[in-house]
Amino acid sequence: MKEQNIDIEEYTAIFKALAHPTRLTIAYNLMLKPECNVSKMCECLNIPQPTVSQHLSILKNAKVIVGHRNGNQTCYKVENLKVMRILKQIVSN
Amino acid sequence: MKEQNIDIEEYTAIFKALAHPTRLTIAYNLMLKPECNVSKMCECLNIPQPTVSQHLSILKNAKVIVGHRNGNQTCYKVENLKVMRILKQIVSN
DNA sequence: TGACAATATTCGCATATCGTAATATTCTTA
DNA sequence: TAAGAATATTACGATATGCGAATATTGTCA
Fold first, then answer.
1. What is the pLDDT of residue A4?
2. Which stretches of chain B drop beneath a pLDDT of 50?
3. Chain A residues contacting B, CB < 8 Å?
4. What is the DSSP letter of B6?
5. Which of A36, A71, B76, B83 could form a disulfide bond with B67, CB atoms 3.0-4.6 angstroms apart?
6. What is the least distance, in Å, from the CA of B84 to any CA of chain A?
């Protein structure tokens, strides 16, 4: 019998990162829009900046999002194709 | 601006349930096969029965799987369409 | 009913996660 | 270089999660 080559560890890490309302909201919105910086997220979510940065850090470690600095601000976006496929599934159902 | 009607809480619960290697493995395999009872899972996973039952309970509470008794054993399967769409995405990528 | 198989639940403890607060770092610009 | 804006990190107490061990429940069948 042929083994399905799904990487359980990888997907577990992704799901773990998405398993929080704030982080799922961030990831979901980042998938819809091109990218976003931190202070705009804080404003939209109405959540303190350190908390948002912590969540961003978790999403980043799980390879759900990537960030790049532009001057003194950091823009984040979703690039991981596996993550994008998952997030697109939950849109508009 | 129109609100996207995605239920963050619902998907958070689903992702939380799937965010564990054992549970993701169980859910993934249940999506591939028609259904499975507990002792067969214990055997395949090589994990003690109480631990498997605990994970099944978590998956059940998150509406990821449903179980029905057949005599003195319980068969579980994935019926939730949202969950199936997510799990199908992670197959064969 | 008694014994056994299959599954579920409870308990206790170790570890992980969450959120707030405080502080540190990085970058820009005067 | 000093000040301020934007972001990141650390510390810590409260709560949640994971797992093994023990036990309870449910169903079958002699």
1. 52
2. 1-3
3. 4, 6, 8-9, 11-12, 15-16, 18-21, 24-25, 28, 32, 81-82, 85-86, 89-93
4. -
5. B76
6. 10
Quickly give A27 CA vs D6 C1' distance in Å.
21
Q: What is the rounded distance in angstroms from the CA atom of residue B68 to the CA atom of residue A14?
A: 30
Residues B10 and B82: their CA atoms lie apart, in Å, by: 10
CA of A75 to nearest chain B CA: how many angstroms apart?
23
Tens digit of pLDDT for each residue in A11-48? 999 999 999 999 999 999 999 988 899 999 999 999 99
B8-92 carries CATH number 1.10.10.10: yes
Q: Which of B85, B92, B93 lies closest to B18 in space, CA to CA?
A: B85
The model's pTM: 0.90
Does the pLDDT value for residue A93 go beyond 60?
Answer: no
| Residue with nearest Cα to nucleotide C25 C1' | A72
